Amino acid sequence: MRRLLCLVMLLLMTAAVSLSGCTRKEQTAAKQAPSENSPAPDVQVTALDGSTLKLSDLRGKVVLLNFWATWCPPCREEIPSMMALEKSMSGKPFQMVAVSIDEGGKQAVESFFQTSGFKLPAYTDPEGKAGKIYGITGVPETFIIDKRGILVKKVIGALSWDSPEAHAFLEGLTK
User: Fold this and answer.
1) Is the four-CA dihedral 43, 99, 149, 51 of positive or negative sign?
2) DSSP string spanning 39-107?
3) How far, in Å, CA of 99 to CA of 65, rounded?
4) Which residues contact 167 (CB under 8 A, 6 or more apart)?
């Protein structure tokens, strides 16, 4: 009986050590992801027309960097509000960069836009580098970057981007 108790205790201690190792790795990965009030990492994404966009080329503009997917219900729910925001911010130093993580790439996004009637300034990240650099854990995830290139806000999950609060926040950053 005593041997069994010692064996159980040994197994529990081994499990505890193993789990704490996973936690440390997760914390290390989290430290590598950008945090609010720090410089936004420069990434390059591909527009649907095949041209490339470097985030650093948008300095001087407020950037709404959104990671999304056509198969994601919350992403689909927030698209109309993103379209409204894009329209209301027209002519201001603002740029929306909606990066699809769809495995189908350009074709998946174009097909989705054609059947849904939605339209965003969409980009793809064919190798998944931008998503990894920003440490996304799912979609939608959005990063607000100010005109100086500083990440000021990270939003996990869908948001009503055309709400008065979201609009006022973004409008304030453009000044």
Assistant:
1) positive
2) EPPP-EEEETTS-EEEGGGGTTSEEEEEEE-TT-HHHHHHHHHHHHHHHHTTTSSEEEEEEE--TTHHH
3) 7
4) 85, 88, 161
Rounded CA-CA distance 69/112 in Å is 10
Instruction: Write out pLDDT tens, residues 125-149.
Output: 988 999 999 999 999 999 999 999 9
Q: What percent of the chain has pLDDT over 90?
A: 80
Look at the block and give the residue holding tokens 């590598």.
32
For residue 11, count CB atoms less than 10 angstroms from its CB and return exposed for 0-12, middle for 13-18, buried for 19 or more.
Answer: exposed
CB 83 within 8 A of CB 121: no
pTM of the predicted model as reported, rounded to 2 decimal places: 0.82
- Contact predicate 165/156, CB 8 Å: no
